[in-house]
């Protein structure tokens, strides 16, 4: 296994069972006590599930608990049955993914399966296609399978490194989320109610959906149990398994198909309930340390299934106990499970082993570029930026001419033209300034983390800023200044949390990225919770802002960001030599006299501030901090003295173009700039991963 695998690690470092032989057969001297212990553990899990179910049935808006059959069979029992079925399915799906990849952080969420299934179902709904339940399951299966295949292919296979696999899945999930958000914004009438469902909701109108999904879950788990011997032997490594006659390729294909089928059944029944597929297998493997007999997949699969059901049912029950049955109606169960999953992801990431200098993840290596090329690229980029600003001022619901801009600058424009330009000017400037700021933040983040696939969003910074801003926007004391302060505080708190959790006598770049992703998932879940608890009339407006929009921008929101960018840009440029050295490895900076931790902290604080002020100005815009620095390196080489100015210009052009497209393509309707950026940046990211998969 590669350095950087968590201690709670894959089965490749452990025997398939307590005393089991290499071929997965039973040990020569069975231990009845061990068997009894395993049976006792399973019975204890069943008892916990039964107790949780009884508590779950007593909760609701009606005081009549079990006396009214109409309430019991019409509402509470269907909700409980859906929770159990979803938990069983996701627990087994996650375990299959982790065992097949020998990666303890693999799950339907981190491999993009849940996001792919949700996107497929949303797309069918948005275009008004009416399909039966079984067909919606096939749609979810197709979307999840496509996402899993893409992530595994781009990451370099199921056995790729933990950081690379999670990064690929998380970034693809970001792209799928952007596509889903675009459909929700453009087809708001057709997709009404899908936003809450998209976070995982157990609300059911009867037992019909459960009765249709249950056979799929039962058959899927039964087929998974039929693979147990192969999975036990596969845990010893591909070479050993192959020498013992296990067909590696077919086992992985069958296992992944079963995992996607189970995930699709869960998504079809209750929406994408997040991170159960990560939590349940991790907890099952921890339990197997106390009860070694559970390490065999024949027992590990039912253990993960039962724990998955307990996690879902308890999460729903605890949520309703904390905020009341009335309040829990609007808050999906998936919010609670995602928070739990984020905690598990961070905990696992903190246990990364520090095996010498942190290796640099595979990346595309760019050769040295000439000074002449750098000058040409920079001049062309600045000219393109100027053109984007002018075009952005001209296009929109009311097309204008360049002469109108000249009259407006002289305060002589007709009222209609003046009104249009007064509205467009701050949003155009907000787009280009935010794009430059996010690109600069991404350049710093990639250099410090030594990972060209990292960006501020995947380090939790933009998620924290978005959560802070939403807390103010949904409050009675909402104001532009308050949102700005809250976004900055949220970003800095998220950054401080990520940095402190990643610190273990030093900062591992892999650990920093994985913990950042965990904090990002957690802040996203909290943002969803706050949004769904707010005034429903404000939900579309806030959701659009969370997707990244320049609509309604005013100068008071743009000027602070411009000031921060003007201060941060010379500061980062002054650190260009340190960035070059930081991007090499962990030891070189110390050898040349750089105060590593102080320099890294100062640069990351600058990135956090840039991202925070960008969120306050234009909402949450992803992919800019990922795409712009990488494109700059491709054009002018890897030296930061050249990468920094080119990346800033490219980021400004990207968001400026996205804003212009979003305002004109569907006029008078408008598509948030953040969604356009994601749709433009996602193909580039896919290409980037594909090119670097064998590096």
TrEMBL record:
It is a multi-pass membrane protein. Belongs to the binding-protein-dependent transport system permease family. FecCD subfamily. NCBIfam families: PRK10577.1-3. Residues 1-34 are annotated as: Disordered. It is found in: Cell membrane. The chain crosses the membrane at residues 36-57, 77-98, 110-131, 138-159, 165-188, 209-227, 253-286, 298-323, 329-352, 373-395, 425-445, 457-478, 484-503, 512-534, 554-574, 601-623, 643-661, 673-690. Keywords: Cell membrane, Membrane, Transmembrane, Transmembrane helix, Transport. GO terms for cellular component: plasma membrane. Residues 17-26 have a biased composition (Low complexity). Its main location: membrane. One of its GO terms (biological process) is siderophore-iron import into cell. This is Iron ABC transporter permease. InterPro entries: ABC_BtuC-like, ABC_transptr_permease_BtuC. The lineage of its organism: Bacteria, Bacillati, Actinomycetota, Actinomycetes, Micrococcales. GO terms for molecular function: transmembrane transporter activity.
